[in-house]
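Notes from hallway chat w/ T.B., transcribed later so I don't forget. T.B. wanted the structure written out for a chain they're using in a teaching module, and asked if we could keep both sequence and structure tokens in one place. Agreed to drop them here.
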Amino acid sequence: MRKKVLITGGTGVIGKRLTELLLEKNYDVAYLSRKKKAIKFVQVFEWDVAKGYIEENALENTDFLIHLAGAGVADERWTEERKKIIVSSRTDSILLIAQKIKEKNIKPTAFISASGSSYYGEDSGDVRNTEDSPAGNDFLSHVTIEWEKAADAVAKLGIRTVKLRTGIVLSMDGGAIPKMASPARLGFGAPLGSGKQWVPWIHIDDICRMYIHAMENDSWNDTYNAVANPPVTNKELTKQICIALGKPQWLPNVPAFALRMAFGEMANVVLGSSYLVNKRIAEETGFQYKYPDLPEALKEVFSK
């Protein structure tokens, strides 16, 4: 019997590719969406988090829940209102799901939630952060702490819960890579700030395969650094993007002060350093990366 996977944020970068891989493996895929719309091979259920509404039968017969929904951290300048939206879009949606699961006495096999590499802080320098490292105390770490705390509400219902702390996802369908590739294609690729800040990364296919692996294997539980190993510096990432595109990198670094003037506090997203070690994945899961090497990963991404 085909198993049902219900996804929030299914139309995002990860959600789209994950859907393709799940369909290839003969899963039934359904989305929770703010608008009812037709998507080929996907059943779409409507929900409204603010009103506490999830369409009837959306959660019925669900074997796995995957939570990807959340307002983009780097989409808009961080006003106080925007900060509230960034947090609530991740947490309120999970809490609503937990509430409805409890009310309907439904028990999916597993709940897999996105989380962020920023758990350890916007800038943790050269510290090698494993899953046991302490949380940071800035805005982005606060976002991730609250995100994971909301996911724990599902775990408390006796449902196996996995949280994947993810860095930059290498994909041309959205996220950081298209933004970095655009100036590089024109010959204007340049490191940001000092260029020495560590950037955790993972190829789009590997993060999607990781979600499926976490679904299908009962040994996965709690938090994982869902990144390739090792991370790279911003300077090296920029260099490898230019090489993959066959473009020179000759411009000087973009000064940190210029980025802060342009983006305010949000500049911390690209100026902060975050060195993540995928300790639990490497030692406990048996997961095999398809693209563990950055040059090869970028080559595959840009080939599309």
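Follow-up for T.B.: The longest strand covers residues 42-48. Might be a good example for the class.
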